[in-house]
Here is the input.
Amino acid sequence: MKLDEVSITKAIVERYFERLMNNLEIDVAIVGGGPSGLVAGYFLAKAGCRVVLYERKLSVGGGMWGGGMLFNEIVVQQDARRLLDELEVRTTPYKEPGYYTASSVESVSTITSKAVKAGLSIFNCVSVEDVVVKNDRISGLVINWTAVSMAGLHVDPLSVRSPFIIDATGHDTEIVDMIERKAPGKLSTPSGNKEGEKFMNPEEAEKLTLENTREVFSGLYVTGMACNATFGGPRMGPIFGGMLLSGEKVAQLILKEFSR
Ligand code: 48F
Here is the structure.
């Protein structure tokens, strides 16, 4: 066997394009590779959906790598520990009852690995810059290389067909914002527009994250921090149980739609 630079190039380009071509018409598109998006991707892929996750940055993991203020540990509460068990992330009980900690690095790397092995396809360095809406319903999304926007280049994007989109973009709720800009007043929030995130309150925030994990526009669901930012709940800081449980819930909601 001879290692040749052009054969290596062909292998990479061919494999990437194969995967891209096979993922232009999908069941579910997840925007954002933080904890909630990765967990949603894991459960949807495990259930047999054709699901793709788009992440703007080079690495997935979102706000999980840095734990709290760069201390790379996370806290999860009792209710969410079963998810880390299923995902094979090790947890350690803390002296406060019901609190567990885990390494943020082990959490991101292990959840990502489990999701990919379950069948989730991840395209990193790709930004979702718009959505396709037909007859007041999501029908796809518009993507471009992150490098294009970083360089400020004027390059037209490409499109992917998907009847469901999950906004897992965290505090920024980028997909919800796109709908609000082009169809003001059409979100299923009390005001019809984004309610905005409220002050830090972990107890309330964790509860509300789960309650607010739902469809916000026909075919568009929110998960993770995007839930409270969209429906007007508080932020919670580096406790991640709500993010994981929200990822699981959004997958269940969409699977229910498919089973109808
Ligand atoms: O922010 P992020 O980790 O979202 P999350 O799953 O988790 C929130 C927690 O990390 C933390 C918290 C809870 O304790 O408050 O903040 O809700 O990950 C969001 C990901 O989405 C990517 C972004 O780079 C990040 O990795 N992202 C955002 N906008 C886009 C995007 C976009 N338009 N296209 C692709 N990726």
Remarks:
- The longest strand covers residues 126-134.
- The mean pLDDT is 98.
- The two ends are 52 Å apart (CA to CA).
- The pocket of 48F is lined by residues 31-37, 54-57, 62-64, 127-128, 168-170, 172, 174, 224-226, 235-236, 238-240, 243 (CB under 6 Å).
